[in-house]
Amino acid sequence: MINFIDVGYNNLTKEKSQEMYSLRKKVFKDRLDWEVLCNENMEFDEYDNSDTTYLFGIYKGRVICSLRIIEIVNPNMITGTFSSCFNMENIPKGNYVESSRFFVDKERVTTLGCEQNSITLMLILSLINYCLKSSYEGILTIVSHAMYIILKRSGLHLSVVEQGFSESQDKIYLLLVSVDDRNQDVLNMKIHKGVLSPENYLKKWPFDIPFQLKQV
H/E element holding 21? Predict the structure, then answer.
């Protein structure tokens, strides 16, 4: 069983925070070579604070994927770190959250016999479900071109707010992802290969996914 849960920054245990920050360092610094702050083999920054909520995918007590959520009215990477990359006047106003530090740990997922793409879809679904339960209207996120293609191919209803370039001159996109039943169903059917899940258990939050779905 893969468990998808949310944990507020102030409720993170020392063990779980160290595990997550270490995985983030491995993904964002070691593998992707992003310009991120690292300390004691962990990656974290000023946006990891009491305004932050984390979503986790956990299998047998181990984190296999995660992302970070901050309400858009609070300091975040869009209005802070990447503010020079986009026209801030075009940022839509609303009850939105910013999502960042989205990752799936390839090594751990491979040892489980799962497909990384399946876990990616599950993590995106967890974000939609969490936002629906919390009554948010939409999700603002900055993604690479590769991630933009993944999201488009998933069938998600989204819009490109702005396009820009990172400090390394890579193309990046500021997206607004709709929080609604339609996006829930799109992901639900992708995960179940064209069939809505029994009793709509994937529409709940938090939710668990039986491990037999590993071959999806």
Answer: helix 14-24
Tokens describing residue 93? 């106003």
1 band by pLDDT with thresholds 50, 70 and 90: confident
pTM exceeding the 0.85 threshold for the entire prediction: yes
Residues 6+ apart with CB under 8 A from 208: 1, 2, 3, 4, 201
> What DSSP line would sit under 72-123, residue for residue?
TTS--TTTTTTGGGS-GGGSPPSSEEEEEEEEE-HHHHHHHT--HHHHHHHH
Q: How far is CA 216 from CA 63, 85, 201, in A?
A: 20, 37, 17
The two tokens of residue 47 are: 């946006």
Place of tokens 């929080």: 179
For residue 113, give the 3-state DSSP assignment: coil
**Which tokens is 216 given?**
């999806």
Q: Report cis status (omega within 30 of 0) of the bond before 206.
A: yes
For tokens 């181990």, what's the residue? 62
* 191 DSSP 8-state letter: H
To which residue do tokens 């890579």 refer?
A: 170
Single out the residue of 68, 32, 74, 33 nearest to residue 142, CA to CA.
Answer: 68
Residue 132 pLDDT more than 50?
A: yes
Strands 96-104 and 138-144: parallel
| Integer Cα distance of 52 and 106 in angstroms | 24
